[in-house]
Amino acid sequence: MKKDLSIDFLGVHCENPFFLSSSPVCNNAEQIAKAFDAGWAGIFYKTVGIEGMNECSPRFDVLSDDPSSWSGFKNMEQISEMSLEQNVEEIKKLKENYPNKVLGISIMGSTEEEWRTLAKAVTEAGADLIELNFSCPQMTSHDMGSDVGQNPQLVSDYTRAVVESTHVPVIAKMTPNVAEMSDTAIAAANSGAKSVSAINTIKSITNIDIDNMTGKPVVNGKSSVSGYSGNAAKPIALRFITELAQCEDLKDVELSGIGGIETWQDALEFMLLGCRNVQVTTSVMQYGYRIVEDLISGLSHFMEERGVDHLDEIVGKAVNNIIPSEELDRSFMIIPKVDEDKCVGCARCYISCYDGSHQAIEWDNKTRTPKILEDKCVGCHLCINVCPVTDCITPGDIVFKDGQSNSRSEKEIAQQLVYL
Amino acid sequence: MDRNQTLVYEPVEIEAFDFRRAMEEASRCLLCEDAPCSTACPSDTDPEKFIRSIRFKNVNGAAETIRESNILGASCALICPQEKLCEQACNRCGIDEPIQIGKLQQFAMEYERKLDKTYLSKTDTYIDKHVACIGAGPASLACAAELAKEGVEVTIFDENEKPGGMLRYEIPPYRLPDVVIEQDIRQLEKLGVKFELNHKVTIDEKEQMKNEYDAVFVGAGTWEAKKIDIPGINLEGVVNALDFLEQAKVSNGKSPSLGRVVIVGGGDVGMDCASTCKHLGADSIYDVFMETLKDAPATEKEKVESFKIGVPLISEFKPVEIIGDEKVEKVKFEHITNGSTMEMVADTVIMAVGQKTRQDAQYWNQRSDIFTGGDMVNGGDTVVQAVKEGKEAATKIINTTFKN
């Protein structure tokens, strides 16, 4: 299945919306060449600074229910280990060998002068786009990283310094370690950034090592707060993207989505909230560049099934359907029903309903069957979410609360619910 | 859900993983580099790639990968001896159990069937070429599909009423339901392949076809049972396995009373006969073979299945005489090493001791102007091997005939 997945981002033509984010998956030309060959449309090169970093060992920690997949991932790496001069050479090689791929170069300075120097150097080296790293939460200098990204004034100053030093479009990469993201995003946009990318990693302690009494990973008996990413971060990322997409002052700013993307569905979700491309790292660190094959194939099949010819048709389609909670339709309840032929008799629905909801399931321990008590059920669907059997408990009758109604038919409301 | 299996000779479908089970199983996959499962598949069905697609929620992509390499992907999911091929090679064996690759393939193929999806498309590379494929079995179907994808106009000839060859006429429906065979055949039809059924192609006709078509492929199967030369082999009640299975299939499992059955042979065909007899309500069933239980060629899965349905497997005995007047009454066996003998009362004896290549096969195989493949060439191997040979023949046709 070959579909045209091309989409323009900041006036740059991209063969598909799949980018690698600035991280260990984009360290050098040799490594990135493999990513391009695998099918990624472009990259955001691992953040280039004036000097290379001095890193700790070990530097990662993982959160997972089963060893085969990480739900969350913590890393303590900073920006590139290489100097500006070395990175410029790598970027030149990529530009020469892959003229049709998109080279986004992430940079980070600690003074306006450094930002200018970096911007000029990577522009000359062949950057198509420059991303400003205002968001790495584990820098050893407080003049850099997410400490900067939390300060709209610094974001504004550094963005302006870069915009004045380059002709290529500039993207500001946001930290989620703030209450609201729009202030800093607006600061960047007002200073000339054409795009905002979000989110960088979330400040975290993933686990405490109970033997050493410190966080993980343990570095000679100690650990630090540092960035959390992976699929568990996706909901937080989508929330910030929604905020940016709905912000009036940012409506001319293009969005680039980052946060826990593993599958084509994850990517599509970011695009439906207004992102024109997505950036991926954690799942590539776990599974390799090859995951782009299923991102491309899965999105192509989706477009074929839905009759979508161009990605522009779907970008932002979900933005207006995220509304303030006070505006939600609260006129009805959807009462679940149990398929007794499918029920295996585990009673998990009964336990959860009793202990976690409204005691609306009666359990017959002779026949080992649950019964939903319609007069007590509030339609929360905790039982559906906890049931281990596919299609055993499903949405059933729609009950309008005392004399209320709405414009949609019961059938339409029910069809909106899909539980896998 | 019924925890006790019930015996149905012709089930509508065979229970498949639902989405959740498939995701659980796919997440067990180690997603190896240069994956040994993919290397172990004769027809390059590429389990590593399609399992990875399932793992990343791209079921369409999984089904597409299977289809692109194996036109019989739905059938192979059910009947392939995975435990001797991809699943045996699986690196997960170093941790616990191999990934259930067949079940994941079945999941992707069920998705294709239930949503009536089409993944294959034609190019117009060889749009002016015509090829005849003789036989509608696995090798021929695979050859036809490969050619049709390149735009070739292919006609398949078969003497039977329905396409599929041994898939249709030998493999019992409780292992491979008709609906799954039809699903695979439909993919060929969508590629524009034409079927000329009830058409037995004579030798003269084949010679004539050589002039009418740009190439002729013959994949006519084996269809001839090996016979062992022991006294009483021609008595009434002694049948060969292929005839027995075909008869059971065309009569939809409604055979005349079998009485007490003794099966000779420890291969998959022997096991198929054993379970078919069970479905058909035989009074008693014993399966006897010369090999040790471990060495008997049937897959572990089939042997276990025989135990489960209550068919005793008796190893290391060979038949020496079939006793009876006109009709079989007993079979006499001798132990292959220790001299023990055994006589078993029987009303029906099913000989499942292998197939041999049909008499005309050698003639066609030697012809340089005819392309061949499948059981007719290899003497009787797996369906997936026949698919491989059919695909290879197609490549050969393109390289040696079309490109000149």
Automatic annotation (TrEMBL), chain A:
Cofactor(s) needed for function: FMN
Family matches, as Gene3D superfamilies: 3.30.70.20, Aldolase class I
Catalysed reaction equations from the record: 5,6-dihydrouracil + NAD(+) = uracil + NADH + H(+); (S)-dihydroorotate + fumarate = orotate + succinate; 5,6-dihydrothymine + NAD(+) = thymine + NADH + H(+)
The EC number(s) this enzyme carries: 1.3.1.1, 1.3.98.1
Entry keyword annotation includes Oxidoreductase: yes
GO molecular function: dihydroorotate dehydrogenase (fumarate) activity; dihydropyrimidine dehydrogenase (NAD+) activity; iron-sulfur cluster binding; metal ion binding
SUPFAM superfamilies in the cross-refs: 4Fe-4S ferredoxins, FMN-linked oxidoreductases
GO CC annotation: cytoplasm
Pathway assignment: Pyrimidine metabolism; UMP biosynthesis via de novo pathway
This protein's UniProt keywords: Flavoprotein, FMN, Iron, Iron-sulfur, Metal-binding, Oxidoreductase
Segments forming domain 4Fe-4S ferredoxin-type: 334-366, 368-398
InterPro entries: 4Fe4S_Fe-S-bd, 4Fe4S_Fe_S_CS, Aldolase_TIM, Dihydroorotate_DH_cat
Top-level taxon of the source organism: Bacteria
Enzyme class: oxidoreductase
Protein role: Involved in pyrimidine base degradation. Catalyzes physiologically the reduction of uracil to 5,6-dihydrouracil (DHU) by using NADH as a specific cosubstrate. It also catalyzes the reverse reaction and the reduction of thymine to 5,6-dihydrothymine (DHT).
Membership in a protein family: Belongs to the dihydroorotate dehydrogenase family. Type 1 subfamily. Belongs to the dihydropyrimidine dehydrogenase family.
Subunit structure: Homodimer. Heterotetramer of 2 PreA and 2 PreT subunits.
Record protein name field: Dihydrothymine dehydrogenase
Species: Texcoconibacillus texcoconensis
UniProtKB/TrEMBL annotation, chain B:
EC number: 1.3.1.1
Organism superkingdom: Bacteria
InterPro entries referenced in this protein's UniProt entry, alphabetically: DPD_II, FAD/NAD-bd_sf, FAD/NAD-binding_dom, Helical_ferredxn
Residue span(s) of domain FAD/NAD(P)-binding: 130-362
Pfam entry (one): Pyr_redox_2
Record keywords: Oxidoreductase
Start and end residues of each Dihydroprymidine dehydrogenase domain: 17-114
Catalytic activity reported: 5,6-dihydrothymine + NAD(+) = thymine + NADH + H(+); 5,6-dihydrouracil + NAD(+) = uracil + NADH + H(+)
SUPFAM superfamilies: alpha-helical ferredoxin, Nucleotide-binding domain
MF GO annotations: dihydropyrimidine dehydrogenase (NAD+) activity; iron-sulfur cluster binding
Subunit structure, as described in the record: Heterotetramer of 2 PreA and 2 PreT subunits.
Function, in words: Involved in pyrimidine base degradation. Catalyzes physiologically the reduction of uracil to 5,6-dihydrouracil (DHU) by using NADH as a specific cosubstrate. It also catalyzes the reverse reaction and the reduction of thymine to 5,6-dihydrothymine (DHT).
Protein name, entry field: dihydrouracil dehydrogenase (NAD(+))
Native species: Texcoconibacillus texcoconensis
